[in-house]
Protein 1
Amino acid sequence: INEMLKRTSGEQWLPTHLDRKAINKLPQKPGVYYFHDQKKKVIYVGKAINLKKRVTSHFEGTDGGNRRQVFLRKIHDITYRECVDELHALVLESTEIRRLWPAYNYSQKRAAPAFGLYTFEDSRGFLRLVIDRRRKHMEALYCFNLLQEGRSMLKKLTLEFGIDPAMCFLEARGEDAAFTDHRYHNEKVRKAIDELDVRLRTFSITSSASDGRKLCLLIERGGFYGMGYLTHEPHSVGELKEELDPFPDNDFIRSSIFNFAERNPHMVREW
């Protein structure tokens, strides 16, 4: 009976198991929305500049394909989180897709960068650079998705600063190849690291919410650190980081933030 009433009341575009109230409660604001199945499990995550308009568009198409119909029949509820702007929604959506791994999100399901560039001092006092798998409790100078990507970047640094590739584990050579003056070698490694710091920008983007709060996103040394609402005006990166919640970094978020920064330089603060 309910299905017959729905078909005759102009709501035939609604998924079979979805209550109209779930649509009515959606605001016309930026945000991230979640489609839930019968067991309340999230099966799809999306972002929107206008939540109500975007969610409604999922159900108004004329595609009657079986794949789409199966997807729509599985939607039993919708929840959402309001965001400050499109960038906020984009970052949150990407993070949530990787956290929840919804069945009907097919893009952005890539693992976090698996490799990092690290530095350490060996037993002889030499500073070493090495590409290795990401380590939870070690901060990388930079992160890479592929081992070859990291090795290629490290090789360029050795050529540019005259660092022996063997001291960066890029070549297998005996101990006789080691430097006798570790101070000269270490100076070149430090210069390479300093130059890497210059090339890897650190900047923040701040936007104002409708309630007056300021949302800030931080790119630190070329990677996404995190975001959060500011309680005061920070005077250093360290002070800013105390205000923010760390978020997982990935290529999609990073490139999106850099593109946004290029289009909105007035919202960017270099550190």
Protein 2
Amino acid sequence: MDLAKDALAVALVSPEIKTVLIRGVSGSAKTTLVRSVPGTFGKHLVNIPPNTNESQIFGGIDLEKTVVEGRRHFSEGLITRANGGLLHADDVNLMYRPVLNSILESVINGKVLVERDGISSDYSCDTKFLATMNISESELDSHILDKFDICIGLEAIGNEETRYEIVRRRISYDTDPESFCEAYAAQNEKIYEKVTKAKERLEFVSLSEDILQLIGAVCSELGVEGHRGDLAVANASRAIAALDGRDNVGPEDVKKAARICLSH
């Protein structure tokens, strides 16, 4: 769980890291971790409910306003509402593949292409995509997995005390979200400040030639195809160093970055 929390912090520090996938069996606290993001990291979270259609996600014609006003009216989608924050979807392995692919492409490229309802247009989007999936159900194709900069696996929680605490916090949040957030305000404030300082430091964090060669060697050894994996590890390594208050990336940063970026 700690590695997963670190991965989320890395994603929020690095502007180049756009997509995060959290995989695990049922009971591994994937949803609980996701729900902690707004309070912990100060980012608003927009959820994509199951069976949401393309127009609801990417935007489309608002028929009611179009009829009333006598002209086409374009309504924004969930991806637009997530600007400046995070777009989230549970069970992405059960999502219609073309829609999932379009979400990933839109977030990665920072641009949404809309071609439906007689409309052909594009608009910019500035969000990160945080997805979860249950590994006991259907898997994702390799070309989809490759589009996630970070991929973290969570194991089922067997420790009795930990399971109790997760359930207690989940019920507490569902019952009274505002009081729940207030209870952890001080702890969350420290994490938020750490992430904020890391974002400010990031531009000064450098990658030496030795580190770049190490990243290449690690990705080559793991059989990583293409260059997305190398770039993800490089960006994550810089964010990890920044979170640790350093301006130089070391081998341990690369090792940790590989764990969170290359476990597809």
Protein 3
Amino acid sequence: MQYNLMAVVLSALFETVHGHYGYVEVQCRVPDSKQHIEFIFSATYNMIEYLRYNSSESKIVGYTEFGKKLAEDYNKNNILLAQSEFVLNECKRFGEFIVPISGTTVPPDVVIQLDNVNHKPILVCSAYDFYPKHIRLTWIRDDKVIPADVTSTEEQNNGDWFYQVHSYLEYFPKPGEKISCVVEHASSNKPMIYHWDPSLPESERSKIILGAVGLSMGVFMAAGGLIYYKRKQTVSQGIRKGNEKAVPVCSAYDFYHKPIKLMWMRDDKEVTADVMSWLS
């Protein structure tokens, strides 16, 4: 694994003149081993790299005619080469700090709590301040993985080398069940299991009760409304006179859902002629 300890882009080094643009890039490349730390300096103009210095080769290489001329002059400049050695030593100094960190792992702080989202009780398993980034959170109920009703965030960078992540489970409490959040991370050689404690304070129990009641009431009202509409479905028959002609009318009122089909039958056979229908 390789770490770019410094990647400094000095885009203001060259002024933009008639659409021409140039920049230099300075890097310290720190591999897993301290023996191969590199200092690299490159210069680019109009999207073409025209020279580069690599401390592994201890010289500047030109890639264009202009770059080759500059490289020839710079390689004869002992002051410039001495400055390159100074920067390389700084890279090594920082490398001695970063290489030991590269193998470090920091275990997450895990919290399971109850939340209420859109009047639904939600269990949240949060892992904070862990390193490295990769982590896996899963929910289990009575030692079986819960595959549905689960959403998770991506690992979020805290900006201080540490990360956080959150997993959400829709919570429908059942007597005697055991719910746990399983965390898999490089800081532990086995999964870390955190159990949800149903013995909550009064305020948390109220959240669950209110959420469950609200959900039940919503289902009840929806079912009641559907029954109401079903009961209100009516079909009436009548005779309407139009242009002195008797016209049988079949009307359907107050139905739900929208798709409906009305047909006329004469002696158990569908009548297709002289039939008109419309929706209102």
